[in-house]
Queue: 4 jobs
Job 1
Amino acid sequence: MNDGFFSGITHQNLEQDFKLLKAALDASVTGIIITDNGLPDNPIIYCNKAFEDMTGYQRSEIIGRNCRFLQKDDREQAARYQLGEAVANGNDAVVEIRNYKKDGTLFWNELYLSPIYNDNGQLTYFVGVQHDITLRKRAEEELKANQAEMEQRVEDRTRSLREKEEYLSSIFETIRESLMVLSPELKVLTVNHDFIKTFKVSKEETEGKQLYELGNGQWDIPELRRLLEQVLPTNNPVVDFEVSHDFPHIGKKLMLLNAHRIELEGEYKDRILIAIEDITDKREIEQRKDDFLSIASHELKTPLTTVKGYVQVMDKLVAKTGDEKLHNAIEKTSVYIDRLNNLITELLDVSRIQSGKFKIYKEPFSFDNMVQNAVNSLHQASPSHHINVIGETGIEIVGDEAHLEQVMINLLSNAIKYSPDEKEVDVQLSVVSNFVKVSVSDKGLGISREEQKRIFDRFYRVGNIQQKFPGMGIGLYICSEIIKNHGGNLWVESEPGKGSSFSFTLPLTKSDLEEDAK
């Protein structure tokens, strides 16, 4: 069995019973999780399918994380402190807590938390049974409404809708993005000024016409038909739907479409709003930038290799003369050449990722040795900081050792760079269910919650950091792509002034676990 909780308690020849129990848990319509109190931060080691459906997260994004990630920014809840006391004291708890799905949707969770003790009376696990009570909470809130205020609210709502209609109409006309409103029959009801300007049409040529008949059929686009006739009728909004089309009069356009059903009261019900962003020029600029990075990186690599070779020759010649000052100057030059070479390598990695040519070569290797090699490299480069390696996995996994070591070096380098006043960095290794987990923690500057959302974006740098520390904002982007290419998950937990903890999990294959058991 793959899950850490179940594999740890099969020593009494009850494997068949536990297989049945696990199957029952997986089939349950109630969300169920199990956390390991023996591991740092009490991570989730098991979740059933109902919990995945309830939260919108996949199992690979759940395992290894503390339950608090479901509260996102909504941390100041009394229920959280009640849960914290229960975990700290090993007690049962029943709470109603606000959680958020992966897409940010709020849902109310009725959580039954129970501790599990082993035969020695030691607290080992917690079981959480979860119910989505959002509908019940909504009903309770509606019952609290005073009937005497209802008529007044209806009147206020009607007046507010009239005001909003005028307000939205002014926004609709002035917004700098092409907007179109369709009827359920896909007849164009109205378009804004930007649409007319971008697609070189008039209101008379557009409004009141069937969408696919506009401009002698130039809007009869297969991708748009699929969006409007297959995707949108499911009542799900369409977000960032990319459409490329060659218009007869304005040429080829690359468009980003967002579509929503408008369900306002009265005559506006079931109308469809389509926002069209022309990203033709933007995408062309991005492509030029990527092409430039690729060409520049390749062109710099060859002369830099030659310079590196000459510096090594110079160092050997100087060593014979015994000139210590010249030797030190050459040594420093070599260090800066190495830094430049690493930067060029990162730029090449970004270029390969963007072009889809980034390759991962997987071979079996010792995960703990890989981490230790990265730690040793940083100890030599930054002797002023001490890196504490806590725990071990004892696992030999199948992956790209060089690229995963690159991830470790990058995370460790960042931890050292952004905590200049602290002298210690912690690396925590553990096996959580059928995942290996690594956390790199520092007590440095920290990152605000708003900026954590973009920290893994290409070329993004945290505002207060980019003013004090040099960099291009590509290291974490590359790390994220490497982990994704291994089927893993990389995330950050941080508070300004209290440091950061970057963690990632990698799934262990069946062969990994079998090799470890030998």
Job 2
Amino acid sequence: MIDRRLLVRYLVPAVLGAMLRATAVLTLVPLLTALFDGTGAWGWTALFAAAVVCGWAVEYAVAHTGFAIGFGLLNGLETRLLDRLQRVPLGWFTTERKAEGQRALTSSGRELCQSITHLVTPAVNALAMPLLIGLGLLAFSPALGLVALAAVPVLLGALWASMRCVRAADDAYAAASGEAGTRIVELARAQAALRAAGRAGTDGTAVGRALDRQRRAVLRLVGFGLPGHLLFGLAAQGVLIALAVTAVASAGSAATVVALLIVGVRFIEPFTTLADLSPALQALRGTLARVRELLNAPVLTGDDREPLTGAPAVELRDVHFAHEPGRPVLSGVSLTVERGTTTAIVGPSGAGKTTLLSLIARFHEASAGTVLVGGHDVTALDPAVHMGRLGIVFQDVYLFDATLRANIALGRPGATDGEIAAAASTARLDELVERLPGGWETRVGDRGAALSGGERQRVSIARALLKDAPLLLLDEATAALDNANEAAIIGALDARRDGRATVIVAHRLSTIARADRIVFLEEGRVVESGSLAELLASGGRFAGYWARREAAAGWTVV
């Protein structure tokens, strides 16, 4: 929100500045008439100079206040956007929305900050000036003043029609440019995979198609812009001719005609300014639309509820989920995870295992059915409270460009050095700390680039152990670890389990074998569930999966 006092400090001098500009223009009529007639023009010259100088002073004050308002908008916008994005469901962030969000956070604030001084103020002046000049002309030539006032809606209508001609094309161009930008970023990130596959160039690729659409959008933008500019140009020329004819017919002397013609030209100038500003105004309109979409994004709500006594740690009741309509990921999944137990989610790739964990963490919300944690529907839980009770380790680990200590401490910011060291030791990070040149204070690089995949996973595990949450979600958390480290970490997790429930997505047989219960997913459905012994004895889908994994474990490269 804008400070009302600051807004008044902006509007009052803005209106005064427009009046001074109009006064300077209207003063040209008696000034030029006196100069051409050879009569005394010093008084009018002094008035003209005073109006110009005062106008400059007022414009400086308006610009200063405009920047203050702009910076206020920038700070408020960044705070509101960040607050909103932190409460938006992760499923809302499609590739396109991520790109729009990045644009809104990196450029929209700057555009809005500058728009007050560089767009809004000139636009307000350009709208007010013709009206003020038209009203002032009534004192010198009533007929010319009436023509000028009548011309205002005509020129504004022509300008609106001109902008309307390019608006649809401009929207198409903005959409095409956004898609092209997203695809180019994807291309840059996928260079290693593309080069390994021998793919070069953009022909026939998503980025190539996006660039083609962008080029076609540019041609449409130019094509639609020409008729709009022609329409406004014809309207401006017609108004100028009407003003000239009226000035000649109503003026009493040649000097007055010349003066009125010059004022008529100055009357047209603000509309030309508006026409020049129209592309920037259209861009600002797109910026506001992007910001509005982010500020209207759905948010996670809920309240602080303590887990119900005796309730399972996790319970899914007939849960359905789909990223896109008609393409279900989970279909009617029901399962229960008791406190103090470990449940392994097993199944082929694409079965919906990671999605199931995301629903428990409320990164996504179920399309149908209910996900309960601690006996409460997760949609009724305060997101911050819910996340405070979860320890999460995903296969795709994200580390910040900070020290090793800071990345582990993210699990519990108030933890002591001894607690951080204990969690790191449990995650088998002792050797890494000794090897790093700066020990605990070594920066791990962007996304942990200075560490190996296994080391990043161990940091993430240490972070979750430090948090010591009552519910632990592990998604292939030990996939990048060697057998010795995996056995040590899983053993430590079992030893520290107490009343904690663990849900783990795993492929390794050693990890699966430690689970109290195994849930076998296939094509988004629970096919089998039970203990390892029960599932192997039944000879069903899991038994076949287990046999194939056992056979694959003995493969060697020769």
Job 3
Amino acid sequence: MTQPNIVVIMADQLAPHWTGAYGHEIAKTPNIDALAARGMRFDAAYCNSPLCAPSRFAFMSGQLISRIAAYDNASEFRASVPTFAHYLKALGYRTCLSGKMHFVGPDQKHGFQDRVTTDIYPSDFAWTPDWEAPDERIDKWYHNMETVKESGVAVATFQTDYDDEVGFAARRWLIDRGRERAAGDNTPFCMVASFIHPHDPYVAKPEWWDLYADEDIDMPTYVPELEDHDPFSRRLMDGIEASVVPLTEEEVRRARRAYLANVSYFDSKVGEVVKAIEDIGESDNTIIVVTADHGDMLGERGLWYKMNFFEHSARVPLIMTGAGVAKGVASNACSLLDLLPTFVDIAGGDDSIIGEPLDGRSLLPLARGETDPTDEAIGEYCAEMTPYPVFMIRRGPLKYIHCDPDPPQLYDLVKDPLEKQNVAADPAYHNAAAAFAAEVAERWDSEKLRDNIIGTQKSRRALHAAMEAGAGEHWDYNPPADASQQYVRNHMDWTVAAEHYRLNPRNTNDTNS
């Protein structure tokens, strides 16, 4: 059986609502739209934890964060947890990561054979929250409204520097696979190209900013009064200072314009990767997946960034196209932890290679246009700005959100897509609300989980203090480079090097073209 290549192109903080493929009226995302038009668009895909590192660890492992203790942006991703990179390598794939995955801990590869860039955020325990002081801000790294107020235009930022490098390194790695194909090596490959955009700061290059005009940028659809927010939303607003730092309409509009500009910038990177796949002649034998680690509220409900289970924060784009994938739309709820079993399925593996229990299911039947009886996504949030775990169950049209100190929340997303009406106490939804409450109690021991989280927070803060004092070496990844093996050096005759590096257009016999 031919094993198709798998290429994942991942955004950071991209709500699907802000792409043309998902219906945004002015978003200029031609590359994402083209992939959606010829593949499967998943319309109810969720992250499993609306924060960068936990979401990515669930994505990589196929396990919920409570199972692998991946609670926040400073939780170690243990080297003993198998990832899809491990499984695909065992199934004969060459694997590569270009870009961000926010690995925390000394293992900075987690099964990837090649890692061709460094990461963009700290790999240590610096960003550890403190649930024993949940109301205290860590101003060094907590979001606040200055990020919104400073939105605008710049020729370059650390984020554009990073993504330009990620795109270049991803394309070069793919071109090298083409060179190997030309030499007779047909090893299947899996590459993850993971970009930082459109994550805040909301600062765009002029050429992307100029794609849009202020008068075309829509404002948030639903912003309740401060006193009408649920308790968890109030804690978030206090934590990011949205409840005390007012924003002008112009500031909100500018941030949303810059975000949209950066969505278009990310879309251009999608195009670069797709073009590289085409250039090496692998389009017909490659499954391309476009997704993100979580979304961004962008002022909806008065909230910004992520860290909650409302649709703009918890939903992610998920588009699959390529070998064996049907053209269509899948409405079933699913999540990022479903991608590991999907990739193993694509590669021809089965349960016999799985080293730890998985919390997801393969989406390959849905991708092929078949039916799937499962219509469910599970979420957990165990990071900053909450004193207790927050749980989400999305099943069918209903979404249930639970946090021990707070009243339950239940939304009917078909009747109320903006989540304006919490129907948890509505008599018409009594049976559903009771069933969800019972399921939460059965699935999770919230008090025990909270104790475990606080325990890891204490140990990580102690370890970070020791590391800051000089104990051990930093874990930040340095991509290996050996200039003596690059381009034309003494390891290879220059005529041999020229032949090796020359990659002719595929599907042509004209070697001079």
Job 4
Amino acid sequence: MALCWISIHSVVVVWSIMCSFTANVRSSPCAEVHAPSTVVLAGSPVTVSCYIKEDCSLTKGQDFHVEWPYQANLNYSDVANQNKSIYEIIIHKFTDRTAVLHCAICKHEDCSVVAGVEIKAANPPPALQNLTCLLNLTVPYSLLCTWNPGEETSSIPTTYTLHTEIRNQAFKYVPPPGKHFYRVPRNGFALFYEVQVHVEAVNALGRSTSEHWVMDPMETVKLDTPEIQKVGTEKYGCLRHKWSLSERQRWIVKYMCIEIRLTPMHGKVSDRQQVSLRNHSKPGTIDVCDLLHGMMYQSEMRVRYRSSPWSEWSHPTVATTLIKAPTGRLVTWLKLLGQSANRRHRAELFWKPSLQFRANSMNVSYIVSLVRPPSQRKTVCNTFQQHCSFQIPVDVRKIHLTAVNTAGKSSPTEVAVYKHTEQDPVAYLRVYPESEESVLTEWSSPVSSAVSTYVLEWKALHEEIPQISFEIVDKNQSSLVVAGLEPYQPYNISIYPKYKDGIGQPYTVMAYTRQKAPSKSPEPQFGEIRSSYVELYWDEIPLQNRNGIITSYRVFYWDDENRVRVTDLEGTEKRVVLKDLRPSSMYSIILMTSTTGGSINGTTVTVKTPSIDAFEIVLVVIPACVGLTLLFLGVFTCFSNNKCLKKCLWPMIPDPANSSIKKWTITSSLQDIPSFKEVKDPVLVYLSHFSLLSLSEKELWKGNPSTSEYLHSCKWSYDGKSVNDDHSDSSRDSGIYNSGSQTESVPYATVVFANSYRSQPAAPPAYLRSESTQPLLGEEEPSSPRPYEKMLTQAEPSEADHFSTFQEDLGSKQERVSLWEDFPMLKSLEVKGSSHQA
């Protein structure tokens, strides 16, 4: 029994879902659902009731209750039951476009849908808008009216009705369902009379009406394209047009409005312009005047009736006005390019029409003449272009420029010749992008204040033969917008200050109206390839492919292990060396080119670095070995000749405060004295060497030998080296200053004394001349001078300060006392003090 009930319940549910897609009231033998209307106003409350029939098998002898399933999205509430067979709910605000309400009989938790009803929410028709009507004069005549229904609802049908009223006679027209236009037949309107039109919309919830429009059907007609039959020229500056309407509309002869558009053809001199003429006229002829003389014009025409829509433009017709001689002056710009060897200036003259200039013909040529005093003219150019190059003799002061056509010549435009072209330029010129087709130029006044005007010149660099354009600017103006340029293309912009007696030097800047990434990046090429570095170089990008000023290059390169390195370069560099590479490695390289507008990467190139070969090893090892060898030889030479090394590193400079003997050598005394050719006085030559020996009193006077014998017994030698070697001990004992170990000079003389020289005995030491070849104070005598000895002139040996002649017979004691003044060189050896210090 339970399974049967579940089966019946499932069938009822499926039946209710299938029926929910229909738009009628659903009922069953058990119940019926009622609503006030199946279409309700959107947002209004709705009351729905469910009537349970007495013979319903689901309710006989059983406890049940009624529910409204599947309506969780609706805001509803139950109403108190009037009796046990009627159950009601109230939906407070019905907003769904379509909803199906179901009534279900429930026993405990098991419910069975027994009836239902579908309710639709809608609105009254919205106000109709944009009602328009157009008259169609194609036979049969008709008036096509259209309108905008607004936000139309498809849930309920809406009926539209077009109403027209003519001379108090009303007509109604109902379009097919879903259509929002209607073509009114000829009997529903009248030409040249007013017609009142409006549209009405009706649905189950209400109606709406458009505004009433009163119009003349003729003012809504779009006439056919007119025909220009002929264009003639009968007077200067005018074109006469003969025209008519189409053949089926030629009956319209009043209240016509026409418009003629004329466009100059091949206007090289004057700016291209359009001349429009609107006039009320009947079909026939019409004149258009105030045109350029001798100019070919293309004429087009369109018409309308009063304020009706314009017709289409007619087919163009070309005609030429009558020719007259050119009038007005030309704007000129003369550039002197330098003086040739024959005392002539190379010059370029550019010109363009002023606002007052009229060529008065299509084909105009120009004559450039040099004017020489007195009133002599020489033609140098006869051209159809607006520029000319020629040479100017130095005696020419002005040039005449004349425009010529078949009707005559214009008055000559006089151009002054400036001889000075080295005047001061402006301080700066700056260019800023203004738009894709223009730039803003700004400049400063030059140092000189005698500027009369400025000439701003520009030319496109991407053209094979650049066309130069210019503008004359007032002296009080410091900026100008240059228009008519192409984006992403380079232009040279120059400013020339114009003085009363000459033209200043130009200040030139390259500029772009707008920049973007270059069209392509240069492909790098390989130069020298080594194991540790690779040289790259590339060519410049063509001007037409740069699309801006190249600001930088960036080189990306990576090895087999994808270790990427980057090298940045300035935009002017075209070469780079990639260093610190690994031998026998494959590298991939990409060159990126950048402008202020963007960047672009080039193609990837690869290169493999070679391995280190024997030749490179030799190139590295040989210079290293040579360097080490030279370094070793230099060190060895320095240490072997320790005299030079000592002299360079720690030169011995005697301290006069702590010395008791002097040292003189010619080389050491004169090496720092500059040679002066003008010095006539003889240079004082010092003695080359002195050796000081100190002996004991016993050795000095033993057996009273002769000094010569003593010297021989002491192994005296005139060689400085032997003296140092034989007397090293005595030098250490008595503190002898021996310079022989420092130089190679031969001792000039030796002073021998024991202990302090003030305490010596009377016996004199020997004083002998050396074998030195060094020049003495005077010319030598044929024989050697007599030896000298130290003599005692007083009782105390310490007071002896004289030398006497040393005779062969010392025992005779014959002495001849001599003063220090007799020996000026020996006097310099005098050591004052109580004791001798080395």
